[in-house]
Write a structure and sequence with these properties.
With 263 residues, this protein is an alpha+beta fold. It has 2 domains: 159 residues, no CATH class; 41 residues. Helices cover 27% and strands 42% of the residues. Strands 2-14-13-5-8-10 form a 6-stranded mixed sheet. Strands 1, 3, 4, 11 and 12 form a 5-stranded antiparallel sheet that branches. Strands 6-7-9 form a 3-stranded antiparallel sheet, covered by helices on one side.
Length: 263
Amino acid sequence: MGLYMGLACLAGLFMGPAARAERMVTDLSSHSIKITSEFSGTELLIFGAIERNIPQGDGGHGVVVEGADYDIIVVVQSERHDMIIRRKEQMGPIWANKEFRTIKNVQGYYAITSTRPLDLILPPEQLRDIAAGMKQLKVEFLEGATPEERKDFRAGFIRNMKAKKLYTQQEGTISILEGILFRAILEFPANMPVGDYQVDVHLIRDGEVLLSVKSPLEVGKAGLERIIYKFAHEYPAYYGIMAIIVALFAGWLGGFLSRKMSG
């Protein structure tokens, strides 16, 4: 009930003359996600409304809704960082990491959802411009690599991120209600990286991106996890020393209790 009331409020904002034919208002169910020790993942609702204004007479504007003619693409991505990917090879009876490559400036989380299959909405070059689709993701390597190696490592990287549910692509899952109100639901796994995210909602018609609306999303640690996380990043040397001390103490305590129990 609350969702539909919120969507109706968004639709009510579309009053008065518009500078262009289409207008779009979007919002998120939450602009902040807090990760605690009990965090097991969450869902994010992205919703909005579309309006198309057609002039009537000399001075007025008539609101004509033609939502069925539109497509929506939603892209959610985290901050970009360098990441290392390793390739395992069998060496005798065991598997071991033999080669690695550093991927430059890549998203730790990436999700996309749309009203229809992406290749039916936009051509590849336009999908690439808005970073829409796994095929269009920019993956560059810090170390030199042959074209075949780049292809293999890229495929392995995306496969690993999908297995961790950090990269997802859902096509045809955005619903448009009454031809004007739309909604999309994206899942965030428990292992999602912290940082500043960006949510891009693109309005498309007849193979053209008409409007793009950006919304910020903050993902951060909360409670004790936040204190530990900040300490580890602000004082990494002290955090490392403390981690070693705690590990040594835990080992000594385990040995001491084992001797007590056996004696």
